[in-house]
Design a protein that fits this description.
Elements lengths: L3 E4 L3 H14 L11 H7 L11 E10 L2 E11 H7 L3 E9 L3 H17 L4 E4 L11 E4 L15 H8 L3 E12 L6 H14 L2 E3 L4 H19 L11 H11 L10 E3 L5 E9 L2 H7 L7 H11 L4 E9 L8 H15 L4 E3 L3 E2 L3 H4 L7 E13 L1
Parallel strand pairs: 4-5, 11-12
Antiparallel strand pairs: 1-2, 2-3, 3-4, 5-14, 6-14, 7-12, 7-13, 7-14, 8-9, 9-10, 10-11
Length: about 375
């Protein structure tokens, strides 16, 4: 039978859309499923503030009466204006290893974009950089993280077959926690504190962190990440959503805040215990028992690996050693809590400033992912 592509318009179809990923990867030891409610709410215009400046349409592919693929077409008008492009993005893409299915999914997104005046298609990308992005092209035998996409090796093969080309690559490192701060970083941290009057502050109250620094943290992200590939600045409404959704989950022992002599925010780092195994055990759902696995990972550190979720420094302090203050604070805490490794999560291969920070650590470049593009 031929492939039918259906736009997702009902709750039943949305459930099929989300659960297809769980079914496709149910036997994979490396895939980390997103939470059902997270995907559902992200794709709901009533719950995701990104729809202020985005339009999107999820699709499912059906063959022989079964769902065999999915994809979301997205136009981020703010990002298109910022980068002076007419791009339709694709995200949340999964498919069986069937050329007919893959071709039908991407032809649908391409046509959807053309009808709206777009001239290029690229992805995998979400609404913003806080959604999973980049198709795995190396590291298929490594477990994913909660912030990244896992896909089978046949995915990029189909992309190349259809004429899609590289637009950007991200690298991911597995870092080994050193016994002590490397001498280079210790020296730089001392100089930075003396020269610029910077220091690290820590919070013990999530409510106080949200009240005093919440907005400033995400505004700093907008400033620090503005030049990075495809970045879409967070709106005030998005910032409030992220403050409410994510700050309460943080282990504040792993959140160093850098301030200047006037207590202005200069930079910060955010690490979390790896939630990969917990998400696998939850299988996409908080209930009946998924919540227990997540709470156990967040509160009782039942893992030897952390995830480096975010690191950001104001542009005027980038390249001046401010990140060394984060390492100076994090490394002893990280070691004391029993973590032996840390996942860097994706870093653009052209972001040499960030990658140079790992030169003094034992590390393995163990994954690579790619955003593809094609002219329409």
């Amino acid at each position: 039978m031929s492939v039918t592509i259906k736009p997702v318009t009902t709750k039943k179809e949305m459930k099929q859309f989300i659960c297809f990923n769980y079914e496709l990867y149910k036997d994979s030891p490396y895939a980390v499923p997103e939470l059902f409610t997270d995907v559902r709410d992200t794709l709901d215009p009533k719950k995701n503030a990104a729809f202020e400046f985005c339009e999107a349409q999820p699709f499912i592919a059906i063959k022989d009466g079964k769902v065999v693929g999915r994809i979301v077409a997205i136009i981020n008008h703010k990002a298109n204006a910022r980068w002076e492009k007419k791009v339709v993005r694709f995200g949340w893409v999964d498919f069986i290893d069937d050329a007919e299915v893959v071709d039908a999914l991407f032809a649908t997104v391409e046509q959807w974009g053309k009808e709206r005046g777009m001239e290029e298609v690229n992805g995998p990308l979400g609404f913003t950089d806080f959604d999973p992005e980049g198709m795995l092209i190396e590291g298929f035998d490594r477990i994913g993280t909660m912030a990244t996409i896992y896909n089978y090796p046949y995915y990029p093969q189909h992309m190349e077959r259809m004429g899609y080309e590289k637009d950007a690559d991200w690298q991911e490192y597995l870092l080994t926690t050193p016994d002590a701060l490397p001498d280079k970083h210790a020296r730089v941290a001392r100089i930075v504190k003396e020269r610029f009057g910077l220091k690290v502050v820590k919070y013990t109250s999530h409510r106080k962190l949200a009240k005093e620094r919440g907005v400033a943290i995400f505004e700093l992200l907008n400033e620090a990440y503005a030049h990075l590939y495809g970045y879409s600045a967070l709106s005030p409404q998005q910032i409030q959503q992220y403050i409410a959704a994510y700050l309460p989950l943080l282990d504040l022992r792993l959140v160093p805040i850098i301030v200047d002599k006037d207590d202005n925010l200069v930079g910060f780092g955010v690490l979390l215990p790896s939630l990969a195994k917990a998400f696998q055990k939850a299988r996409g759902f908080m209930f009946p028992f998924g919540w227990w696995h997540l709470i156990k990972a967040l509160k009782w550190n039942d893992t030897q690996t952390s995830e480096m979720l975010l690191v950001a420094v104001k542009p005027e302090y980038q390249g001046k050693g401010a990140v060394a203050l984060i390492f100076e604070d994090i490394i002893p805490v990280h070691s004391k809590l029993g973590y032996r490794y840390s996942e860097s999560n994706p870093e653009l291969e052209v972001n040499t400033k960030m990658q140079s920070q790992w030169d003094y650590f034992e590390r393995e470049n163990h994954k690579r992912r790619r955003a593809f593009k094609k002219e329409l």
